[in-house]
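We examine the record.
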Amino acid sequence: MDERLKEIRKALNLTQEEFGKKLGVSRGVIVNMELHRAEIKPLFIEHLCSIFNVNEDWLYSGTGDMFIVNDQNTKEAVRLFRQLTPDFQQYALSQIRGLLEMQNKAAFSAAIHKSDEDMEAANDIDAEVNSYRHELEAEENAKTLSALQNTDKSIG
C-alpha cells in the first residue's frame, strides 16, 4: 500500500510537503508512510480517499482505477480514451496538453490585459490627484498673495 500511496501523490503531481498539507499531516509523516516506516491507519485511508476521490479498493489491493470519477464529462472522456489504441491515446494526450497550454496562455494574456487596464486606471487617478493638488496650491498661493497685498496696504 505504501507504493500506491506514492503513486497517488505522483499522479496528483504533488510534493510530499504539498500532499501532506492537503491531508493535514507533515511531510515527515508522508515520507515515513511511503517508506513503510509508519503504518497507514484506516482513518487516514478514509480521509485520503475522501479528499482525492481515491478508489479504496485500488489503494488496498491495486485492483480497479486509482481514482473514482464523479462527473459525467470525465467519465465519458475516460470511457472514450480507453477505447483508443495506445498510439491514439498518446495523440489524445498530446492534444489535451496542447489545449491546456492554450488555456494557460489565454489566461495569462487576459491577466496581463487586465493589469494594463488597472495601470491605466491608476494613472488616470494619479492625474486627477495631481490636477486637484495643483488647484489647491493655486488657491493657497492666491490666498497668500492676497494676504501679502493686504499687509502692504495696511503698512503703506
Notes: The radius of gyration is 32 Å. The chain is about 80% helix and 0% strand.
